Amino acid sequence: MSYCVNCGVELEASLRECPLCHTPVMNPRDLGRELPPSPYPTDKGQVEVVKRKDLGILVTVVLTATAVTCLLLNLLVFHRALWSLAVIGCCLCLFVFAFPAIFYSKMPVWLTLLADGASVAVCLFLLTFVTASDAWLLQLGLPIVAFLTVCAEVFPLLSKFFPLTMLSCALCVFIEIPAFCVALELRIRQFTQQPARIVWSAVVLTVCVIIDIALITILAKKRLRNEVRRRLHF
Ligand SMILES: [Zn+2]
Questions:
Q1: pTM score, two decimals?
Q2: pLDDT at 94
């Protein structure tokens, strides 16, 4: 058993230097004797890092394979309804959603969000081939997708004029949530031919107004703002 003369760590008999402090190991008894083979591998084993391109290929292949196999299954086996269009639409959405993260990260945020909204709209359109009528798409589906896309586009637009912090983003979200809920309830009521009034969205609106008032107060008072940032670590 040998120990490093410098740091005292226990040494393997085959070592020529201390693995910790790199002090050369010299055992007078071993002079002239051949050292046993090192227990450690000589090659530095390193797994090659997966590149974004490889991930892109995998995502494209999996999504295309899913869409094509489902289409074939639909056409050749279960051909009562064109259900595979729903799968193809979902694959398309996933591809568009993953596109900026995997293929082109320099894509502007507003364009990414617009493409996401458009892909969801196309997916809903494909669903109309399965449903009896497309009235739901025109009166509910597309307006909701358009409203959500506009809500999302507000963030990149605002960030051009103001530095967006967590607190101001939260304020923006709690303004958009009730606006969306009210618009959604009114749209559903119009679609189902009920009188225009708000019920459940009024509850959401009330809660969000209270949160908004609290957030505006925090944003207006510097000491409160700093305290919240310190406590929440942002
Ligand atoms: Zn040492």
A1: 0.70
A2: 94
Q: Would you state the structure tokens that stand for residue 4, as one six-digit string?
A: 């490093």
For residue 149, is it within any domain? yes
Structural domain total, the chain: 3
- Residue 96 belongs to some domain of the structure: yes
Considering the domain architecture, whether residues 19 and 79 belong to the same structural domain is answered as no
| Residue 45 located in a structural domain | no
Residue 9 alpha carbon to ligand 1 centre in Å = 6
Strands 2-3 and 10-11: antiparallel
With b for 16 or more beta-carbon neighbours within 10 A and e for fewer, the 153-185 pattern comes to eebeeeeeeeeeeebeeebbebbbbbbbbbbbb
- The whole domain housing 234 covers 165-234
> Rounded to the nearest whole angstrom, what is the distance from the C-alpha of residue 169 to the centroid of ligand 1?
54
Distance 16 CA to ligand 1 centre (A): 11
Q: What percent of the chain has pLDDT over 70?
A: 98
